[in-house]
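Intended use. Records like the one below are meant for learning the mapping from a protein sequence to its folded structure. Do not use them to infer anything beyond what is encoded.
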Amino acid sequence: MKFTEKDIQQIKSKNLTAKKVNAQIQLFKTGVPFVNLKDAANIGNGILKFSETEKKEAIAFFEKKRNHKTMLKFVPASGAATRMFKFLFQFIQEYDGDEESINSYINRNKASELSLFLVGVEKFPFYTEVLSKVKKRIPNFNTLSQDKKKLEFIKTILETDKLNYGFYPKGLLPFHQYKDHVSTAFEEHLFEAALYASSNNEADLHFTISEIHKDIFDEEFKRIEEIVEAKTNTKFNISFSYQCQSTDTIAVTPKNDAFREDNDDLLFRPSGHGALLNNLNKLDADIIFIKNIDNIVVSKYEREVAESKKMLGGLLMKLQDQAFVYLEKLEENNLSEKELITIAEFLKNELHVVINIEFEKYSKTYQIEYLKEKLNRPIRVCGMVKNEGEPGGGPFWVKDESGNVSLQIVESAQIDKKNKTQKKILKNATHFNPVDLVCGIKNYKGEKFDLNQYVDPKTAFITMKTKTGKDLKALELPGLWNGSMAHWNTIFVEVPLITFNPVKTVTDLLKAAHQINE
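Structure written out for the chain above:
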């Protein structure tokens, strides 16, 4: 489409080009193709399950190597807590205390989450703070009816002139109530990092956050730094980055025309967690652990979680060491046929790379080139948990347009559920992606890979949204652990359920992994 001079200036201000924006509009028109599932990955077919002995061996290997590697924990943490309180926002908007009781409202709306919230209210880590605030605000609070007390309590949590929790980043909300203090998810990530993402008693953590929250993250770190360092005997190096505006994508109308705001500006939107590949690509470490901000546990479960992470890290280091040995041999160009077959078998059996059936017919020169290209890639070891009905992505064998088959993490939105074969494969999935990754982003010479070279751009997402009551289509870049890592070498390993404890809604904080006395 043709852009006005004003449009061009707006596009340039985002470090984008008219060509790139037009390519995005074209993608809306052609549509994003569904992925082609070949099979569900499960135990023995793409997912490893470690015995207790194998787990101990991997952990021992990790412990032996950890102080010789630079390590970093990468935590996507830009989300505000608004969605956590969605049902409470809805309640204060809809509820009229003059017309009905809260119990009646719950029954009429089948508001089971609100019911759970009110039953467990005293177990929330913010209970004491909210109660104190509401009593200061309403001196006669104790004389109010039970329903009025509950309503004022919820208003104190959410309203902008009160605690305003919906504005807060998830990472800085009160998450866990200990005997002598309340901790945030941000603080828990530091304690966890000391156990597995540290070397030589130093831990580097990188959080991707919204720029507006930078000051409050800094304040929180200042508040807890000395305490956490003393308790863990670890020095913490914390860094932050923001999602680049150049990763924003244009929004379009349902008819695929550029969506315009009331002042005639083009509408650009953040492009999902795939945009964070840009942030990850700027980091420098031998081993990078990736874990979402809300997926943490109270201290009594931390060691079990850390053991699982060390197991994944040990496997990554072992596979990487072997891959590097083979790459150095391939560089010499004088391998025997037997050695080339050994390397091909390593790719197939250890890295789950599907080798071309014509491989043995290739010339020796091309065999060497082929093996080098398959081996010399970023590598990720991904924890997978048994599927307990959680929404989201999972591990699959996927066939691309060229007929290449590889292991991928696929979101359900990428699958054509109208296709019986694809639907059946989806139904056969046994595991779920908890976003539990350990990544090697350097090659055998110690140089960083350019991670942008390993993305499958066709795995973007198109979603329906609204703006000021008008429908629009939004484009999300290939997900960070989906299409953004499509051409990495990928290993899936089953990990225990205790490693997956996200807080999608505030009532998740009532689950055992977030309660100190359960």
